[in-house]
Amino acid sequence: MIDAYYWPTPNGWKLSIALEEMDLDYRVCPVNIGKGEQFQPDFLQISPNNRMPAIVDHAPPDGGSPISVFESGAILVYLGNKTGQFYPAELRKRNEVNEWLMWQIGGLGPMIGQAGHFKLYAPARLEYAIERYHAEMSRLYGVLDRRLQGREYICDEYSIADMACWPWVITYKRQEVDLDQFPDVKRWYKTCQGRPGLRRGYEIGKEFGKPGGQWDEQTRKNMMPQNQVKDRNYVKR
Ligand SMILES: N[C@@H](CCC(=O)N[C@@H](CS)C(=O)NCC(=O)O)C(=O)O
User: What range defines the domain where residue 70 resides?
Assistant: First the structure.
């Protein structure tokens, strides 16, 4: 049994999609990030970065005591290793999956996140920041589009790299990305969407509410480190 510390957001969906695609036994432990549950001491023991997703695997492959994992990329690698699914064992194939997984973790996710932040959530409209992150996001869409030319999935077969990237591309409409400019991303996006496991994963926790829309005062406090500096003295500078 795996405890899935989760909230339905792009990073959270990576976990729920992997759990469903890999047909794993799990239970959802909701972490309402808008309400600040990522700062609960028990959760910080598992995820010291005060971010979800995280997992606790009560039946780890080595048969030992439960293992906790934070960071979505580390979780996908852990689950790929545990199940032997969507994470090829062969050196060169695994290396490619690692490259594209790390590309998502270090690039696509954070840059789309910043683009969305300045476009949708910043208290003031900052043209420079909006333009900078929109341009970087578009560049990354272009990189993905070129990679997908002549390929069904990001690597030889559907893998944890697709599971990491797809939940960020979902946001394309709100991010004002014209998917017609990236025809191979568009085709890949729809191919992934046709996978029953991915669709089930995307539905997990939809009753908690989807991200987006306006943030209320409490959410702004919990989700913005600059407010945490003032209000909780949690983040120091
Ligand atoms: N690098 C982390 C990022 C996770 C992350 O940013 N999660 C967001 C939701 S998508 C979160 O928990 N936010 C809570 C907060 O900002 O305090 C990962 O890939 O797991």
Answer: 2-86
Asked if 94 and 88 count as a contact pair (C-beta separation under 8 A), the reply is: yes
Residue nearest to atom 1 of ligand 1 (CA): 71
Nearest by Cα to 130 from 120, 118, 117: 118
pLDDT band, residue 237 (cuts 50/70/90): very low
Identify whether the C-beta of residue 24 lies closer than 8 Å to the C-beta of residue 1.
no
Asked if 12 contacts 205 with a C-beta cutoff of 8 angstroms, the reply is: yes
Query: Cβ(47) to ligand 1 under 6 A?
Result: no
Q: Is residue 221 part of a domain?
A: no
Q: Which atom of ligand 1 is nearest to the CA of 70?
A: 20
Pocket test for ligand 1, best of 43, 51, 78, 112 (most atoms within 8 A of CB): 51
The number of distinct structural domains making up the chain is 2
pTM above 0.90, yes or no: yes
Q: Ligand 1 atom 8: the closest Cα is on which residue? A: 51
In a domain, residue 228? The reply is no
Q: Quick one: 79 and 98 in the same domain? A: no
Which pLDDT score, from 0 to 100, does residue 218 have? Answer: 73
Residue 217 lies in a domain: no
